[in-house]
Write a structure and sequence with these properties.
CATH superfamily of the largest domain: Type I PLP-dependent aspartate aminotransferase-like (Major domain)
Distance between the termini: 46 Å
CATH architecture of the largest domain: 3-Layer(aba) Sandwich
Number of helices: 18
Radius of gyration: 22 Å
Strand order of the largest sheet: 4-10-9-8-7-5-6
CATH class of the largest domain: Alpha Beta
Shape: globular
Structural class: alpha/beta
Helix content: 40-55%
Bound molecules: pyridoxal-5'-phosphate
Length: 452
C-alpha cells in the first residue's frame, strides 16, 4: 500500500483519489479528467494546497469552520477528552460530562424554552430525528393523523432518505426513492428570480400564504410541522422579504403546527446572533444544529427541543438514537468551540464590526456589470448573476453555466466561492479580518471580470 504523505507529488495523490475515492455531489468523470485539488493544511481563513497555493476560503469549508482553522484550544480539548474517555454511549441510562455540559450550554444559548438537546452525528441525522420526533409527539398527544411535514423547494436538509426527502432538491429526489410519503413542498421566497412585478413585501406575503394553502389542502389535522432554514443557505442564500416570517408564524400558530428551524448553517453566529431564528424573529419548537456547533473540527449535530416536546417524548420511550449521539470527544470540542465564539467576541463581531464591513463591501459588487442583486445577512451572502439588471433576466445558457464558470475562475484565483445555479455564494469563517475581506472582494471582482 502506498504511503500517503503531503510530500507525495500532486499527480500521484490525484491518481489515487480518482482510483478509489468516491466524492459526494461530484461528477466523477469530470473530476477524473481534471484531478481534485488536494488541500493539505489550513490556518485562519487560509487553505494551502499540495502545490503550495494559499487559497482564501470564502465558504468556511462547507459553511462550518466558524472560528477559523488551526485553533489549538480545540485540538487540546479533543486530546484531553480522547485520553480521559474516548467513547461511551448515552443509551440505556448512562451519560457523561461532555454531553451533559454541552446540553446545558446549548439550553442557555437557545432562545425561548428550547431547553433540551437530542444529539446526533450530523445535520442529516438530526433532521431524521426531527421527522420522527414531531410525528411521535403528535401520536403521544392523541393526534396520530398529524404526520405530514411541509418544507420548501430548493431547501437542503441533508442527504439521508428522511432528511433528503425533507429537502426540496429535485436532483436529489430523482435518485434513490425520495421523497418518502407525507412530505410536501412549497415555493421558496426568492424575490429576485420569481418576484415579477410584486414588491418584495407583497411577494413575501404571497409566498408565506402558500403555506396556508398547503395546510388547508392537506387538512390541518394531518399536518405535523413546517421545516425551514431562517435564511435558506444551500438553496442560494435566499433572505426572505421582511413580511415573510411574521406571516409564516401567524399561520403556524393559527393551525397548531410545529416549526422546525434548521439552524445547521444559520446557527452559531453566522447571521450575527447565536441563531438565525433570533435574527429573523421566529420562535421555533425545534432547532436543528450541526456544522458551526463544533466549527467542523469533529462531526456532531443535534436537535434543540422545547420543554413541552421533551416532556411529551420523555414520558414514553423514543426508540431512536445513534451510536455517536453525544460523542464525548465531539461534545468536548463543541463546548470549547462555543467558549471561543463567546469569549473571543466572534458573534458580536459579526453583528457589529467585521459583519457590517463585509456587508458594505459585498453589496459593492452590484457595481459589477454581471451582478444583479447582492444580498447578505451577517456573514452569509449571495450575488445573482444576470445579463440584464433591470429585467432581472436569467442567462439563456443552461441555468448554472455562468455560475459554474465564475466559481471555476474564483478557484483559479485562489478564492473559494460556491455557485447555486447562477447565484454565487460566500460564507467565510467568522474570524475573517477587514484586510482579508478586501482580498476576498478583490478576487471575486477579478473572477467576475474573467467570466463575461
Ligand atoms: N441542514 C442544512 C441547512 C444544511 O445546510 C445541511 C448541510 O449542508 C444539513 C442540514 C445536513 O447536514 P450534514 O451534512 O451535517 O448531514
Amino acid at each position: 500500500m502506498a504511503q500517503i504523505t503531503n510530500s507525495m507529488p500532486t499527480a500521484e495523490m490525484q491518481a489515487l483519489d480518482a482510483a478509489h475515492h468516491m466524492h459526494p455531489f461530484t461528477h466523477g468523470a469530470d473530476l477524473g479528467k481534471k484531478g481534485a485539488r488536494i488541500i493539505t493544511r489550513a490556518d485562519g481563513v487560509w487553505l494551502t494546497d499540495s502545490e503550495g497555493h494559499r487559497i482564501l476560503d470564502g465558504m468556511a469549508g462547507l459553511w462550518c469552520v466558524n472560528v477559523g482553522y488551526g485553533r489549538q484550544e480545540l485540538v487540546d480539548a479533543a486530546t484531553r477528552q480522547m485520553s480521559e474517555l474516548p467513547f461511551y454511549n448515552t443509551f440505556f441510562q448512562t451519560s457523561h460530562l461532555p454531553a451533559i455540559k454541552l446540553a446545558e450550554r446549548l439550553a442557555q444559548l437557545a432562545p425561548g424554552d428550547l431547553n433540551h438537546v437530542f444529539f446526533a452525528g450530523s445535520g442529516s441525522e438530526a433532521n431524521d430525528t426531527n421527522l420522527r420526533m414531531v410525528r411521535t409527539y403528535w401520536e403521544l398527544k392523541g393526534q396520530p393523523s398529524k404526520k405530514a411535514v411541509i418544507s420548501r423547494w430548493n431547501a437542503y436538509h441533508g442527504s439521508s432518505v428522511g432528511s433528503g426527502s425533507l429537502g426540496g432538491m429535485k436532483g436529489m429526489h430523482a435518485q434513490g426513492g425520495m421523497p418518502i410519503p407525507d412530505i410536501h413542498h412549497i415555493d421558496q421566497p426568492n424575490w429576485w428570480a420569481e418576484g415579477g412585478d410584486m414588491s418584495p413585501e407583497e411577494f413575501g406575503l404571497a409566498r408565506a400564504r402558500l403555506l396556508e394553502e398547503k395546510i388547508l389542502e392537506l387538512g390541518p389535522e394531518n399536518v405535523a410541522a413546517f421545516i425551514a432554514e431562517p435564511v435558506q443557505g444551500a438553496g442560494g442564500v435566499i433572505i426572505p422579504p421582511e413580511t415573510y416570517w411574521p406571516e409564516i408564524s401567524r399561520i403556524l400558530k393559527e393551525y397548531g403546527i410545529l416549526l422546525i428551524a434548521d439552524e445547521v448553517i444559520c446557527g452559531f453566529g453566522r447571521t450575527g446572533n447565536w441563531f438565525g431564528s433570533q435574527t429573523m424573529g421566529i420562535e421555533p419548537d425545534i432547532m436543528t444544529i450541526a456544522k458551526g456547533l463544533s466549527s467542523g473540527y469533529l462531526p456532531i449535530g443535534g436537535s434543540i427541543v422545547s420543554s413541552e416536546i421533551a416532556q411529551v417524548i420523555g414520558d414514553a420511550e423514543f426508540n431512536h438514537g445513534y451510536t455517536y449521539s453525544g460523542h464525548p470527544v465531539a461534545a468536548a470540542v463543541a463546548l470549547e468551540n462555543l467558549r471561543i465564539l463567546d469569549e473571543d467576541g466572534i458573534v458580536d463581531a459579526v453583528r457589529d464590526r467585521t459583519g457590517p464591513y463585509l456587508q458594505k463591501k459585498f453589496k459593492g459588487l452590484t457595481e459589477h456589470p454581471l451582478v444583479g442583486e447582492a444580498t447578505i445577512v451577517g456573514m452569509m451572502g449571495s450575488i445573482a448573476l444576470t445579463p440584464d439588471k433591470d429585467s432581472r433576466a436569467a442567462f439563456e445558457a443552461e441555468s448554472g453555466t455562468v455560475g459554474y464558470i465564475c466559481r471555476e475562475r474564483c478557484f483559479a484565483n485562489d478564492l473559494v466561492m460556491r455557485h447555486v445555479g447562477d447565484r454565487m455564494i460566500i460564507s467565510p469563517p467568522l474570524v475573517i479580518s477587514e484586510a482579508e475581506i478586501d482580498t476576498l472582494i478583490e478576487r471575486a471582482w477579478t473572477s467576475l471580470d474573467e467570466c463575461h
